[in-house]
Amino acid sequence: MFKKLTADYLFTGKELLSNGEVLLLNDGGLVEAVVSANEAGEGVEKIEGIICPGFINTHCHLELSHLKNTIPQYTGLVGFVQQVMAQRAADDAQIQQAIVLAEKEMLQEGIVAVGDICNTAHTIPQKQQKKLHYYNFIETTGWIPAMAEKRYEQAVHLLQSFALPKSIVPHAPYSVSEVLWEKIAPHFANAIVTMHNQETPDEDALFQKGEGLFLQFYQQLGIHNPDFVPSGKSSIQTVAHHLAGAATLIAVHNTYTHANDWEWLLHWAASNKVQLYAALCVNANRYIEQQVPSVSAMLQMGIPITIGTDSLASNTRLSILHELQTIQTFFPDIPIATLLQWATLNGAKALGMEAYLGSFEQGKQPGVLQLTGINIPKNQLHHAQVKRLL
């Protein structure tokens, strides 16, 4: 017996259908097909709004969930990093409780898979419950060359603790020394790699001129990198050669990535056979820098886009729908079907999960969401709500 669902609209992961098409699911919740109303026969359940595959959150820091409501808004990225460093230590029970609640929120918000940044093992117990699909990105940082070996060994040890899929990744250009890059780069071979990119103007200032708040920040902490020489280029153009062996690069935030860098990145990705994705976390960008990326320009340039929530340290909610609503506030002309594809199929592809998530195609089990309060004729998401059906 098939479960048969139809709605005012059916978003397949690729296109928005509006002619009464029916989603067929088998008893195990696997997609059998999307068919016409005539082919579906009897027993079709009609619901209000849009039927949509489950959402994919391509960038999150679940382990920072205990920092919700502790870091003030609008500190700028350097100030935010200082706050996280100062406040992230907490009682283990408090950290675990916050992780459980954060995952519960993601489930309620229709999220089915998460690209999660891991600096600790704190999220492992909850991930073992297998309520969501996770890609575990084991993050490395270390600006002091003499610390590179220790940081690398810590990352390899942590990697062994996590279940697949997983990979070792750099935190950001401004926080990884050349020595550490050389140690972690072999792990990128044919892997999915993610990195925070150009989240503040100070990142490019560091690499182009050896100036800006990061230099002051490191001096205040007594952190010295004698190997560092400004390249005269943007941060991403400076470090991209280390990433050339990756199968996929998910560049996160891109708040201050200019068109010339996107053009350079597209050429670099094509030359090195790297699949490039941009992960947008616009509510976090607003929270930290009071800024949003040039999303319309990215779309026009053909940058494949995905959606992330970042952490509860830099966001009030872990909601993909809320991220889409914020994007639409600033970029009202982007079609709803495009936004939904970023939140579903694009995210599944970026995390290497498109074989079973992201779209209503035979054999997949992407989850089924009901979206209500969306005005398709006016292209408005602002009153939208999400309910998880499967």
Write structural notes for this entry:
The structure is a single chain. The protein has 390 residues and is α/β, with parallel strands linked by helices. The protein folds into two domains: 1-53 and 359-390, Urease, subunit C, domain 1; 55-357, Metal-dependent hydrolases (TIM Barrel). It is built from 15 helices and 15 strands. The protein has helices at 37-40, 77-87, 92-108, 124-127, 148-161, 178-184, 201-209, 213-221, 235-239, 259-272, 282-289, 295-300, 320-330, 336-343, 345-350, and strands at residues 3-11, 16-17, 22-25, 31-35, 45-53, 55-60, 111-118, 133-140, 166-170, 192-197, 248-253, 275-280, 305-307, 368-372, 385-388. Helix 5 packs parallel to helix 6 (178-184). The chain starts with a strand and ends with a strand. Residues 50-365 form the Amidohydrolase-related domain.
In CATH, what is the homologous superfamily of the largest domain?
Answer: Metal-dependent hydrolases
CATH class of the largest domain: Alpha Beta
**Number of structural units classed as domains:** 2
Class from secondary-structure proportions: alpha/beta
Main sheet properties: 7 strands, mixed
Mean pLDDT over all positions:
97
How far the N terminus sits from the C terminus, by CA atoms, comes to 16 Å
Number of helical elements: 15
Shape: globular
Protein name: Cytosine/adenosine deaminase-related metal-dependent hydrolase
Keywords: Hydrolase
Pfam families: Amidohydro_1
Domain Amidohydrolase-related: 50-365
